[in-house]
Every structure is written in C-alpha cells, then in structure tokens.
Amino acid sequence: MDLVKVAFDLAAFASIMILVVSGLAVIASLMGIFNMAHGEFVLLGAYTVFVAKGNGWPAWAGMLIAPFVVAAIGLLIELTIVRRLYRAPVTAMLATFGVGLAIREVIRVLLAGKYYEIPEPLPQIVEFAGGTFSLWRALIIVITFLLMVISVCVIRYTRFGLQIRASLENANLAQASGLSTQRLYSITFAIGAGLAGLAGALMVPLYSLSADLGLQFLVQAFLSVMLGGIGTFEGPISGAALMGALTPGIQWLREYTGAAYWISPVTAEVTLYVLLLTAVKIYPQGLFKR
After folding, report:
1. Minimal CB count within 10 Å: which of 107, 163, 245, 252?
2. Rounded to two decimals, what is the model's pTM?
3. H or E segment at 138?
4. For residue range 207-218, what is the model confidence (pLDDT) as tens digits?
C-alpha cells in the first residue's frame, strides 16, 4: 500500500510540474527565449478561478475560461513587447521579468496581500489497495496525460505542427518559403501562456492563492527545461516529469530510510538541486536532446 501511495503522490506532483513546464517548453523550444513571466501566467490562471468564484460562478467555469483569458493576455504581451526582442534573447528575458514583476504586484494589491483557499471541485477521497487517494489529484493526472497526448499529436501530425517544426529547424528558410513566422510566434506564445493559465487553474485548489504562487514553481520549471533540453517539445516535458518525480521522491526516501533524523528537508532539497545542476553542467544540451 505504501508503494502505491508513494507512486500516486509522485505521479500527481510530476503531473503538476508537466502542466507548469509545458507552456514554457513551447515558448523556449520554438522562440528561443525564456519567458520570465511564466510564473505570473500560472498565477493569472489561478486568479481567474478566484474571480470566477467571487462572482458566484462554479470553480469549473473559472478553470475552463482561465487558459483563454491568460492566452489573450499573453498574446497582448507578445504583440506589444516580446515581438520586438526576438533577436535579443537576454533583453527579452529582462523584459518579461519586468512584465512578470508588474503582474505579480498588481495581483498582490488585488488580493490585499492575503492568502485564499480555493476548495477542490472534487473533494472526494477514493479508497484503493488499503489507502486513500484524492480524486482531484487523480483527475489532474488524467488531464495532464490527455493534454500531452493531444500536444504531441498536434505537433507531429497536423499542418500547424509541421509549421512549428519547420520554424524550429530553420526559421529563416521557413520564412523564405512563405511561412509567416511572426504570426506563428504570436500563436505559439499565446498557447504557451494558455497552458500556464490552465496549470494555475488546476493546481490552485492544492495550494493557497497568493501573489507569490507562481514563484515557487519558477526555478523548478526552468531547471526542468534545461535538464530535458530545448529543441523539442518532448525534451522539457521529460525533464519536468523527472523533476516532478525526484523532488518529492528524495523527501520520501529520506523519511523511508530513516535519514530524517540527521538530514533536514532543506539539506535534502539543496542536495537534489546540486545534483541536477551538475547534470545540466555535464549535459548542457539536456538529457533528452534531439
């Protein structure tokens, strides 16, 4: 039973990490820039659910509209700011960092600096193999799996996916062949933002809503992308799955082996990050490079 419970918890956290990283992976792999406002896109998705609940709507409604709201905001940011900075990725990172900071502080003011709890739409507990499992976490695992399957099918088997892969291979040649890479980048940035909004909407019942919600996942998300390697959609997603499994896994291993008596949780987490950064140093193109 313990192993089943641990496997479920690892899968649930890995699913959350995959949801968070998926939007960042789309933008980083195709556009070659790291969106430093990605955590705030996650926050906007969670805040959309909060606003929907505050207006008497069910949480499901907020979760359904969150990706579209955040995608529209992401498209606006791409059209007004990011579009001018494709040839200067470092400047683009700084610009998106400033945008993210502005979004975070606006949300902090709107929340009055408080923390809010969003109840799970499915609070039921399922008993299986002698253990209890959260139905909402199980649904997140299923949604993440379906979303990844759909994303891979779109990238591999549709005309839009062919255009994405063409721009990824050689943007100049794709543009010379008549493909509007500018339009493709705008759509891609909006999709990446929408995926981040969906991640925030789905996971906000598991975490307290605050202005710093997205920050706690930002470092893990960027490290997942570097660990998996950019250049494909599957690389960063694989890195996110690995990160999502290792982060709670090392804490579980610490407790299971009895090391909790002499290794603190902070020490265990720092050790994990040191090992992951070492892996990135040894494999700068990622563990799952193209």
Report:
1. 252
2. 0.85
3. helix 135-157
4. 888 888 888 777
